[in-house]
What we know:
single chain, five-stranded parallel sheet, binds adenosine-5'-diphosphate, three-stranded antiparallel sheet
Amino acid sequence: MNIILLGAPFSGKGTMARKIVSDFDFVQISTGDLFRENIKNGTKLGKLAKSFMDKGELVPDEITIGMLKNRLEEKDCDRGIILDGFPRTISQAEALENMAKIDAVINLEVPFDEIRRRALGRRTCSKCGEIYNTATYKKNTCQKCGSPLFQRDDDNLESVNNRLEVYEKQTAPLINFYADRLFVVKNKKDPEETYKPVKNFLKGRI
Length: 206
Ligand code: ADP
Ligand code: ZN
């Protein structure tokens, strides 16, 4: 089974994907993570992507679609995939239709003011990728692995505003595109509570 996680930036897609992967045998594919890996390794693709990412713009479709297509050709994807951060445009969604059969789309609904509140407080573990927020977590080292937390280059005010705008214009229309396969989840304060209906939904489908 292949699924997509949809939601605005800071809706908690990454956190949700990590929970799903710890309970079910999916391969998590995050285009944001793939780009960041390329940046870290200094690849040509990484250099190209960084110029868009730092401004909060989408990396052009042909680059993103090509990168995802390569990833989907790897053998581990046979287990079933969970896509987080892709697709983000209608044309990416149309391209995906020819690359994989998508069985379900989970849409994380978070009120816009909550998203803004979270945006600038996000901190990420430099080693294991765990996500925290300064509103609820005061330390600057990871609870899981002890490594230092950092603020992503693109989590600055200008980039955040831009990403939210891009989301409204280009990504939100995907909710209609996937209307026939959509499972809507309302955000709760506690990520574990938000996850519960998702877990039950997936259990019933597998
Ligand atoms: P967030 O959801 O917090 O914005 P991501 O890690 O998903 O963060 O993405 C970070 C950046 O990577 C995006 O702002 C964009 O520049 C780029 N990116 C990731 N996925 C895509 C995609 N499917 N299409 C175009 N650009 C993408
Ligand atoms: Zn960590």
